[in-house]
Amino acid sequence: MDEVLQQVVNAVSVGAVYALVALGLALVYSVLGLINFAHGELMTIGAYAFVFTAMAGVPIFLGVPFAIAASASSAVVMERIAFRPVRGAGPTTLLLTSVAVSVMLQTAFQMVISPLPRGAQLPDVLYQAVHLGPVQLSVLPLVSAVTAILGSGIVVTALRKSDIGISIRAAAEDFTVTRLLGVPAQQVVQWTFLMSGAVAGLAGVIWMAQRGSVDPLMGAIPLLKAFVAAVLGGLGSVPGAILGGFTLGAGEILLQAFLPTALLPFRDGIVFALVIAVLTVRPRGLMPARLGERV
Amino acid sequence: MSGRVRLAIAHLGAALPLVAILALIATGVTTVLGPGASLFATTLFINIILVVSLQVFVGNSGIVSFGHGAFIATGAYVSGLLTLPVEVKAAALPRLPEFLAAIELPLLPATAISALVAGFVAFLVGVPTARLVGAAASIATFAFLVITNGVLVGAADLTRGTQTFYGLRPLASLDVVLVGAAAVVAAGLAFRRSSFGLRLQASAEDELAASASGIDVRQLRLIAWVLSAMISAVGGAFLAHMLTSFAPSTFYLTQTLALLTMLILGGQRSVTGAVAGTVVVTAVFEGLRRAENGIDLGPLHFSGMFGLQQLGLGAFLLIAIRLRREGLLGRRELTLNSLFRRRHQAERPSLDLSRDGNHVAGGVER
């Protein structure tokens, strides 16, 4: 019972983080058609910001917002310097631009900070187990899951209810018409990057907490997983990204738990084979973005 | 029939200017920079083979592939298993199946066999995935890369797993790779100009219109995918016999991204662009490496060198993209014809411009 429940919590916690990262990718993609490879580096920036404030003795409840702010502002700066000059270019050009930004940031972290991992002392509470009646669960996955779901929830609510959220969704549907209706394009793009950066910052802190440290290349793996999750869910669709994230996380944890030891090295291969299978049946993902298909 | 033969000769002859340039580069590099630079020239030509193989699929079908590393790895491991001296096999791969342990082939037959194996694998993967487009197709190719990497690591009896696969003889001489690169460039150009290539390009521009005109898009994608995989395997086999030792990580994301960078920077829509991008990026990379070698940072030497190379390449890419969005050459091609009709070709507006101009209009895959 403990075992099963713990695996469920693990699956939800891994899935929630993938969903959070995929959400950030989907936001930017839906508005600009840009698959932002440097999104992982925004996570790394958040994690570094958190670690450095923690090392300076700032308490966690201030460190996390600081990390989020650092990533969000970096995202806006990134848009200004790297992406604005090529806005409107074809998808591969945009992709390549973000790859260049990603490589440069990774290198800059290595040169300026250190190629070695940096860790932060987190409160011991996170590494203990909590007793819920007869069940015993680790705290960290639980906290990660709750935080990530909370973060995604705030963003989704903002997209649904706030004026800026509504204009972002409108821009994702049809940017030209949105501009014709008087919504300033620049503002929409900046807010999109701001929100995307903010979720990246939160995801970066959670990812760092789970592995215990941050290094210059930290963002690469969650980015790739989130990229797969976003496509699995339907690229450009925010609910799709969240669903894709949870599906991928659940798949990984299930296989991790039930695969025979001899086959464990092939876990990622099996997960990705399943992704291909799903895409072959549903090429536009599980929950395709509502785009008028041209016929 | 004679018309077809003449057409085929015309397609192959079209590659003459490019092939001549490759030969010039080879002699130029070795005479100006000395024999020490022949390693650089060999790397360059192998990169050209790999990037043109990528162009055959990506440039014609419009689908970005992250999966070609799998075929490069197939070429490297299969050819390596075939050319590895029997004594080395006994030491490095003691649990090899009998027929592999006893065999020792020259480079060319081994390369041909590895290309056939890669073509077969590509066919198996391609049949279910050929219907995918856009991001889903790219993700499928990426997933394929991850799976292949997992298999290479897992099949330790054949590949030594994560450990280095070593002991190959350095058979990929400059002459061999130069001839190989020339043949691949000619093949890439011929494919692009053939009716297969033209129909596939049409499907990349507008899949609906293409299939409405009776083009079997899936079949064409599959043909390009298999052809491209086989060329990648040739490049992989040559690469293996230049490096002489490698591991599954050699054929993973770093290499994939470097090759895509070369392709997109040069202009994915033309073979000339692929070659130009490869020359420029390989040269810049080599230049940065040499520049950094001059400065000795003591214990920090390695990380310093790594940094300058990557930073320089990234900055170079950003500037190049800003200046030329469609790549250095766009869809222009250097062929015998274009030498005489160049101006006309260059002035023809790209079909894409109108669309790209208002792409902001919706982050929509079209």
Mean pLDDT of chain B: 83
Largest interface, Cβ cutoff 8 Å = A-B, 61 and 57 residues
Topology as H/E string of chain B? HHHHHHHHHHHHHHHHHH
Would you report the number of β strands of chain A?
4
Structural class of chain A: mainly alpha
Poorly predicted spans of chain A? none
End-to-end separation of chain A in angstroms reads 52 Å
Q: What's the shape of chain A?
A: globular
**Distance between termini of chain B?**
39 Å
Q: Characterize the biggest β-sheet of chain B.
A: none
Task: Report the sheet-strand fraction of chain B.
Answer: under 5%
Question: By helix and strand content of chain B, what is the structural category?
Answer: mainly alpha
- What is the H/E string of chain A? HHHHEEEHHHHEHHH
Counted by DSSP, the helix tally of chain A is 11
Helix coverage percent of residues of chain A?
over 70%
Would you kindly provide a written description of the structure presented here, covering whatever features stand out?
The complex is a heterodimer of chains A (295) and B (366). With 295 residues, chain A is mainly α. Chain A has a domain at 2-114 and 132-219. Chain A is 72% helix and 4% strand. Chain A contains eleven helices and four strands. Chain A has helices at 2-32, 39-55, 60-83, 91-113, 139-161, 163-173, 175-180, 185-211, 220-233, 238-258, 267-281; strands spanning 118-119, 129-132, 135-138, 213-214. Chain A has a two-stranded antiparallel ribbon with strand order 1-4. The longest helix of chain A has 31 residues, at 2-32. The mean pLDDT of chain A is 87. By secondary structure, chain B is mostly helical. Helix content of chain B is 74%, strand content 0%. Chain B has helices at 2-13, 16-33, 38-61, 68-83, 86-92, 98-101, 107-129, 134-154, 156-159, 174-193, 195-205, 207-212, 217-243, 253-266, 271-293, 301-323, 336-347, 353-357. In chain B, helix 4 (68-83) runs parallel beside helix 8 (134-154) and helix 7 (107-129) packs antiparallel against helix 13 (217-243). The two termini of chain B are 39 Å apart. Mean pLDDT of chain B is 83; it is low at 296-304 and 344-366. The chains are: A mainly alpha (295), B mainly alpha (366). At the A-B interface, helix 1, helix 4, helix 9 and helix 11 of A face helix 8, helix 14 and helix 16 of B.
